Hints:
alpha+beta, Aminoglycoside 3'-phosphotransferase, Chain: A, domain 2, 2 domains, five-stranded antiparallel sheet, three-stranded antiparallel sheet, globular
Amino acid sequence: MSYNDIKHILPVFMFQGRVVNVDEMTSGNINSTYHLVCRKTDGSLIEYTLQKINHYVFKDPASVMRNIDLVTKHLQGRYRREGLDHSRRTLEIVPTRTGESMYGNDEIGYWRAYYYIGNVNVYDRIEKEEHFREVGRAFGRFQKYLHDFPADQLTETIPGFHNTLKRFYAFVAAVDADQAGRVAELESEIDFFFDRRRMMGEIVKRMADGAIPLRVTHNDTKINNVMIDNETDEAVCVIDLDTVMPGSSLYDFGDAIRSGASTADEDEEDLSKVTLDMVRYKLFTQGFLAETNGFLETDEIRLLPLGAKVITCELAMRFLTDYINGDLYFKVNSPDHNLIRARAQMKLLTDIERKFDQMQEEIEKMVN
């Protein structure tokens, strides 16, 4: 998409000055993102991020933006009360000229803008081990500064996103329907998830019983959703807030461990390469608990390793469900791509299960 394709959108937002450069940013997988450079009347430059929201993934963009508006304003207020500059520590929405957080409709798409945060990088892979501790601090701080925000004020932007009971029922329905004719080859994989159906439902049931509190959670806690300062290597800002909604701290911890502490890519075919890196596990946990130990309940902290098991199992099952259904949800680059993904996550889960006592021991060392 070129400048000509977005120039009609630019006057809608409260951008200062005249746009002098536009670059499309290709690192994201969901939304279309652009880096804008504007020259103000005094000759100085100011930068912005412009995004087109993926309406296929996010069916209710207005609710997505309402959540983001509420959460970012709360974070800004917390930083101000602590005497800190929030401009690099949280996203800040650039409003439209009518004061809205978003502009658009089904025909032209849905657009939003943020003030740009410079001199940072986002990493798809861990290049320095210490970065993962910083990622843990960033997501821990995110939860800490939002622990006094009423989670029930937020909308579920993807309803039932981590409801593993519903995910399991969808899996069973897919197996029964066998609409792509693939079930016959998957007996051991299907048994794998039936054997773990009780474990998968533990967080949902504990939340329903009130044993685990409802919190504001990010729900996509991968390393590339944290900006790292280029000079200090410190975590600066948590980004990609589209999936911020009510949930459990166990989900955020678990998905970060699943995605960041694995020794292999999510779709690694050589399963011998797929293990849980305990060094990375410790680093993330240290960073996360440095920020959350004190407001997370002790029993909640002790259950954090369960989040890694549940989320890894959930995603593995979602990959297999999509494979059974004929690859309708996840993008694939080969006919077996979803099956490869499922098997890689299954292998990671078995290693998490093997190291689970060790994971819990590390938590106990940090709590006590």
